[in-house]
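Notes to self, D-malate degradation protein R:
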Amino acid sequence: MYSIPDLQTFVSVAKTGGITSAARHLGISTATTSHRIAKLERVLKVTLFHRNSRTFRLTDEGQVFLERVDTVLEDLQQAELDVGSGTASLRGHLRVTMSPWILSRFIMPEMREFREHHPDLTIEFLAVDRFVPLVEEGQDCAIRVGQLDDSSLVAQKLSDNERIICASPDLLSSSGDPKSVEDLKDAPWVCLPWQTRFDVNDARGRKRSFSVGRSVAVSNSDMLTAGAVEGLGLAIKSRMAVKDELDKGILVEILPGCLHSPEAPVWFVFAPESRTGRKTKAFRDVARRSFRR
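result:
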């Protein structure tokens, strides 16, 4: 019968493409690596690899076996973590979606340390500002901003946040500083494609809606910030997304408190039945730390 180390060796050979590279990765001898592969093929009574002088390439049977074994080893590791200390290195693949400004400003600064702890875990980021349905688009978890719709997903708050209107001092000096919500209608704006109407509070606190005259439309939130900094127009941004620019004075807040319902908390969202439970929880902890910095 074969053992877990035999399966781990098989996966390593399949992914590195050779006995020598797999042995180096596992920290064992090439003889032991070859013996384990031969043992697996003998027990299974199939050929797992096409061999030549340089590489090992999976047979059709080997490919099927790899897909199943990869899942089994991942589930086993998660089971060990569930009953253990939770400090073991994770492996496998994790898909995460979020807005570009969250990825660049909060998550990326944490990734080097996370990767050092989990070198066998690959992470695929989908950084977009549109709503991404997790199940339909194959995402394991998401970081979302704003009020959430009711759904079957689990949502855990990472941080409070609010949206503001901001602009560069150069734009305000040349175009004038809006003094009331009426002035916003004729101001130049830089917006995301779907930012066409906003709700504001007038001087009497009444809710009013208006359409913006977009000078520039951009496709992601980082470009929205860049456009505002360059003086292309007013922009509606999460305060957290432009904190550095506000602190440095290269952006300033316009008409504080004028946006109606500005609250836009940051959430970590995942499916309750997710099979990437340990990986998702580990990444959630990274996200929590990043928003506490």
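- The chain has a mean pLDDT of 88.
- The longest strand covers residues 91-98.
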